[in-house]
Design brief:
Blueprint: E1 4-12, H1 19-25, H2 28-33, E2 36-44, H3 51-57, E3 61-64, H4 70-80, E4 85-88, H5 100-106, E5 112-122, H6 129-146, E6 158-161, H7 162-166, H8 177-187, E7 192-199, H9 211-226
Parallel strand pairs: 1-2, 1-4, 2-3, 5-7
Antiparallel strand pairs: 4-6, 5-6
Helix pairs in contact: 6-9
Length: 228
């Protein structure tokens, strides 16, 4: 038994239809049987539904974030947790927490691991054609600018070793989070492993607007490469 600690961070905003399923899918017992202590950390952006209540009933730690934006929520969580391994996924049930043990194994080789939607499978309708193409273009742009070899720069499913988290200095507030993670990881020379995953249709309304947000991410990638 190694008694190492794992934190699973899930940002939420009005996810009462899915957060219970997301938490239930985290293989806590299997991880505990392998010698890990597991914390589930929900960072809630002032949901107006029962998201926080359901999460607490499921045994999760719930942090309230008054400032809007997924990146702000993740930054709050990362400032709070102190674990050997940290996983990040969304609260809308698009990403399966069942992949955590596979990603954990990959973290023995790589300091950072992503769950790749574009290498894996996608439920019909989970990723619109324009978003599928846009993700490929943004990923190609990121790889060219930063010398990486990832297949899915916009994935919301990440795993990190502790030393990586300690060296991140995140400043973004919203949808640029994943791009900023990739930029900082690449600049610090960390290798990134990948696990192909199944990407599911989300429960509820999407929070990104597709083309508009894609253009913002592209500008962000350029600006951080040439102006910082």
């Amino acid at each position: 038994m190694n008694n190492k600690k794992i934190s699973v961070i899930i940002p939420t905003l009005n996810e009462e239809s899915s957060i219970g399923k997301v938490i239930d899918e985290i293989p806590v017992k299997a991880l505990e049987n392998s010698g890990y202590v597991v914390d589930i950390v929900i960072v809630d952006g002032l949901s107006t539904d029962r998201t926080a209540k359901i999460a607490k009933e499921k045994g999760a730690i719930v942090l309230l974030e008054t400032r809007r934006g997924k990146a702000r929520a993740i930054r709050t969580a990362l400032e709070t947790v102190d674990s050997n391994f940290v996983f990040m996924l969304d609260g809308d049930y698009t990403y399966s927490a069942a992949y955590i043990p596979v990603m954990l194994k990959a973290l023995n080789k790589y300091p950072v691991v992503i769950g790749s939607r574009l290498k894996g499978q996608r439920e019909k309708g989970a990723l619109k054609k324009i978003n599928f193409i846009g993700n490929h273009l943004l990923t190609a742009l990121a790889n060219i600018l930063y010398g990486t070899r990832v297949s899915d720069v916009c994935t919301g499913y990440w795993g990190f070793r502790k030393e990586v988290i300690q060296n991140l200095i995140l400043t973004s507030e919203g949808f640029q989070l994943e791009a900023e993670l990739l930029i900082q990881i690449a600049k610090r020379g960390y290798r990134i492993g990948e696990v192909p995953i199944l990407y599911r249709c989300r429960a509820g309304k999407a929070k990104l607007s597709g083309l508009k947000d894609g253009m913002h991410i592209a500008r962000f990638l350029f600006s951080k490469r040439f102006h910082s």
